[in-house]
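Quick illustration, no need to memorize.
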Amino acid sequence: MVVRESIRSYQKNTLSIKESSDELNQPFVTTTAFIARAPRSRTLRDYLALAFATWGVGYAPLAPGTFGSAVGVGIYLLLQTASAQVSAYGLAHGWSLDLISSLRMALMLLLVTMLTIVGVWAASRTEKLLGRKDPGVVVVDEVAGQLIAFLFVPMNSGWWVIILGFIAFRLFDIWKPYPIRRLESLESGLGIMADDVLAGVYAAILISFATTIYLFL
């Protein structure tokens, strides 16, 4: 009896169930330390962390991760519209296409970097607030990963590239080929963000090859 109670106590303090922001991913047990729930009285930073971690769509009853990816697609489309306006302005003022392309890439990388860094903080704080490992409401990782998937997409690409990018990222995020799943074992928000960042990189590589073949033909 004493041995059984000791085992239960050990499991409670050393094992936690990792959730998923998409129902197609099955939860699994990780060997991370038990996450203590934060005090009930929440601060402004707590609410900012929750808002940034969930983007509102994290509370969707079905497949919140897919909705998070859709948010990433929406942000990318807004960036495409802004890029078109900047390109028109630049060409009218004698900017070269190389400069415009370089500026667009620099801004995309800056956005993804900032989104990932703040996402690590927001996801870590949300874990403590909810007292759960990688809570399903956190979708900022899908938002960042989806944007990474579009990093190398040429300007004025057709809708087929957008659709392919969305499908490719969701595929890699759900399938989790090596070593994506191993990155989930990293501590707190870093583990939440890292696996989707790599899934986005895999999707970006696939899209780059697809667009290159399309343009060559």
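Residues 172 and 199 are 5 Å apart (CA to CA).
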